[in-house]
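Sequence in, structure out. First:
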Amino acid sequence: MATNPTTTQSYKQLKEDFVSNLSGGSVSEIAQVCAVAPVVSLVWSVLQARQSFFKPYTPLGYAIDFLLNVGALLLSVTLYSSAPLLLNLLLLTVAAFVYIVPAQTRRKKPQLPPNAQSKKSSSEQPLGVLSTKPFLTSYRGNMLIVTCICILAVDFRLFPRRFAKVETWGTSLMDMGVGSFVFSAGVVASRPVLKERAEGKAAPLSTRLKTSLRHSLPLLVLGFIRLLSVKGLDYAEHVTEYGVHWNFFFTLGFLPPFVALFQSALKVVPSYAGLALLLGVVYQVLLETTSLKAYILTGPRMNLLSMNREGIFSFFGYLAIFLAGQDTGMLVLPRSLSRSTRGTVQRRSLLLNMAGWSLVWIALYFFAIDYKYGFGLSVSRRMANLPYMLWVAASNAVLLLAFYLVDVLLFPSFYSAQDVKTEKELYDTATSKVLRAYNRNGLAIFLLANLLTGLVNMTVPTLDVGRVATVVILITYMGALTAVAVGLDEYNVTIKL
């Protein structure tokens, strides 16, 4: 049966209208929804620390892992979207119940003779400068899962419109998600910089640019593939989000070379946070004192620049967010803040530093938006302005702090490991296999999520689907994504893009 072109066109317009002209929701509600992730981490960690529930990792363990780290997050943006506090309380009740249940007794490993212990310790690899910390895996894995859920859920009526991307002014969960994706990329990007500093090397600008372009090329190719597929398939698109041709993959792709250039500016401003603030403030001043804001919001689309003005100019805001994330990575990734600190002192020092920076970002955000004591600016993800950058940085700093608190309370032994093998064993014990899998191939899974989202939208009239069917589709979709992620991890496959 032939498809009526008029019907197809009108349905496409309906889908575009469904995600257009939205004003978002409150920052406090978004914070409550985001809080589900560290609360879920607490439940998982209590199960593991008190009952060794995920060791060994059985099919039942996988099911509970999936229900907690995927299912609970899915509920927070669908069935419990109007009651995130209730969901958090229910999860905290589960955590409290599991905690008061008598802990499972663990069989101690047989003690080795002294001579065998000395041989064992001498053969073990000493710890390096950087560490893969459990709370970072939990933070990034949860962020990727929520992102994958939302990019499909937003096309269904069950997903609240206040969670979808705002048209121009305001805050929403998906606006936070986009910024968090960039912030977490910045955290990860600090690793090679820290390695260089530890080795006493400083790569010249030309080398940094070549390396950054190798990272950029696959992302830019993905951007062009998405552009061609959206235009070729006449897929519904929201032009005011990034522009006519621009998309998020282009934003991600152009970040590495610009970050490489900004690294040279560290000689003048010796702090990534300082660079982020400087860039954010300069960009905001230009928005307020020139016609740039009016051009981005209302200018005619006459050439390539004007057609993609949202994506091009918001890039500077995303670059500031990336640099803020990189500054956070410089703080949390090193094994110790100084060589003299170990164990409890080290954990306390990092905790205080993270809490301090969280307060700094929160204070700057409120100073930017407050009408009485600050500048009275409004958040705009469309322009990625200064208040948006500060909101994203503050929220992610607090989330990281929450995940770290779970870590140090329930798995403190990780931070006392003396060799690589022991640390790896403790890391595996303290992290969800599902979250490790998403973290390992995050960009590849995100790409697959985009492909599956397109497939669902082309085969299912999402605007006409009921509540139960929506939940079934989303669980099936996330089940497939998680199975692929865990499968790749199980077979030790890392896809680098």
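Second:
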Amino acid sequence: MSPPAPWLVTAALLLLLSAAAAQETCSGVAPPPPRRGAWMSVASFGGAGDGRTLSTAAFERAVARIARRRGARGGTLLYVPPGVWLTGPFSLTSHMTLFLARGAVIRATQVSAVGLLHLSSSTLSMDTSAWPLIDPLPSYGRGRELPGRRYVSLIHGNGLQDVFITGENGTIDGQGSVWWDMWKKRTLPFTRPHLLELMYSTDVIVSNVVFQDSPFWNIHPVYCSNVVVANVTILAPHDSPNTDGIDPDSSSNVCIEDCYISTGDDLISIKSGWDEYGIAFGRPSSGITIRRVTGSGPFAGFAVGSETSGGVEHVFVEHLNFFNMGVGIHVKTNSGRGGFIRNITVSEVTLNGARYGLRIAGDVGGHPDASYNPNVLPVVYGVTIKNVWGQNIRQAGLLRGIRKSAFSHICLSNVKLYGGTSIGPWKCQAISGTTFDVQPSPCTELASASETGFCTN
């Protein structure tokens, strides 16, 4: 199929990004999509959307051509036509748009003993030696799952500016089942790949794309700024291990909105490095806005942590709608993490089914190695959770700080949680703050708003 005229693609992109213009949006976080001065199709570089032909080299050649054309006015749009485009990992470049047409699928190869090829059955064994490795992130010191290097994400970028991944709700399919199986069997030699990871990049928009069956985390902007993720759908089975939806990591000025996420781990989790490595790197996640997210999963709907050693601050979250969750809202850290979690506001949340409505906990998550210092404690201060309504909740919440670093200035306001027949009470330890209009009745560690003068709705 011939690609559409460039002006049609640009018009479609502008229409898609402006669909929620009547609501409060991420406008201004990243520059608006430019009118690209050139466009090209991956089919013109030898790729085939037949679901069998390996198109890795075609993507690589197309991106290399775009990189050589950096002087082109407005950059270049790479068009992925309808069809199934089988590929191994490839990197993006600056000043480009990766545009997936309606019906386009970028599908990750799975690797067998005979090399890169498409496997339709997860019962076949997998040899990962042909999947490229990259160095661990400096704020983690090693692969997140295993020591040493890690497998590169399916779509990767490092040090980029002005990058858009968008389209007409085409799909990026990680074919993660074989990776999940290896994780369960403990046969992985290195940490699994993400579906999309962008490092040290700025002015990024990811919109109107479906992410499906990632081997590990789905969307991972790390050391980035000015990032928008909007109108994205992220899907993975609820038993798929560690398939987090969106994990902003040591990144600033990030906006996530109008997304549907159903995965096997946290739907959204804000991170900033792991123990001594994150402390040394010292780059917080800051200035993050999240709104209008719907989803389901066995862990948290919205989370901070547990890797927060660089610090997390100035986070505003609103209009969340979660169902059949493990935890509705989860703020998590641990002794040895260091760092801080402060100025976090979550409001307008609806929960329908969860083991815990809320958790704020200081005993979550492992450590990268034995070199961490358990006496380096995190500071959690200024977490406000308000206007939350939940039904079919088993236990209202667990609020448990660290004995030598109590979590303070915690505000719960207009939080109403109900069970099917009854609901377990709040459990609190090493925590202080205030409540206003909370059901079931809060624990005594949290004073009423009339006693403290803050935390009113």
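Remark: The first helix runs from residue 6 to 17.
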